[in-house]
Amino acid sequence: MQKALKFLVTFGAVMCVTVLLTVLPLLSQGHTSEEMTKAAWEPFNNNNHKSAVEKAQECIYEFEGAAKRQQADLVRNKEPLPPTGKVDPNVKRQILDRGVLNDVGTCLWIKGRSAEYLFQKSKEKDTSSRDLAIAAYQEACGLTYARTWDPKGWFWSPAEAASDGLARLHSQCP
User: CA distances (Å), 90 to each of 9, 144, 154, in order?
Assistant: First the structure.
């Protein structure tokens, strides 16, 4: 009995160490929402929409809670919605300071637009891609304070762009 107990304890300890050695490197990677958003843009810009959906979902999964809390705080404090288009440097800094909110809004749009592309390209009009696009777009509609920086020098609203996507799919923001 004692040998069996000793074996179980040793085996359990070895398994815990094995799991920790496997999981800790993944946890310590510490990817930021900005890094994860860039990782979603890459396949999107290369028309690899399946991979773009997956990469965007990773950011959404990791940071959506924080983004929704930030959105709720801004609504509760009755902050004015940030502008779109070109803005002065002070306003740009304020918008960029909402990084997690911006990144999750952007990734929801990337996920929705990529799923919409997959739906359009499917020969049999796979409705699961359409449903995925609608769900992502509807989530993006709720992040009205999120803004996406265009490298050409201006901001756009992923919530507004998601509303346009929903219209293309004959749906609307909740």
Answer: 59, 20, 14
26 and 95 share a domain? no
Note whether 50 and 23 are same-domain residues.
no
Residue 89 and residue 76: Cα distance in Å, rounded?
A: 26
Distance CA 121, CA 105 (A): 24
Total domains present in the chain: 2
Helices (H) and strands (E) in the chain, counts: 7, 2
Do 44 and 13 lie in a common domain?
no
Is residue 78 in some structural domain? Answer: yes
Give the Cα-Cα-Cα angle 159, 153, 136 (nearest 5 degrees): 20
Q: Which of 143, 133, 142, 140 is nearest to 169 (CA)?
A: 133
Instruction: With cut-offs at 50, 70 and 90, classify the pLDDT of residue 3.
Output: low
91 and 113 within one domain: yes
pLDDT in tens, 20-77: 333 333 333 579 999 999 999 999 999 999 999 999 999 999 999 999 999 999 999 9
The secondary structure element, H or E, covering residue 119 is helix 99-121
CA gap 140, 159 in Å, rounded: 5
Percent of the chain topping pLDDT 90: 79
The whole-angstrom separation of Cα 130 and Cα 150 is 26
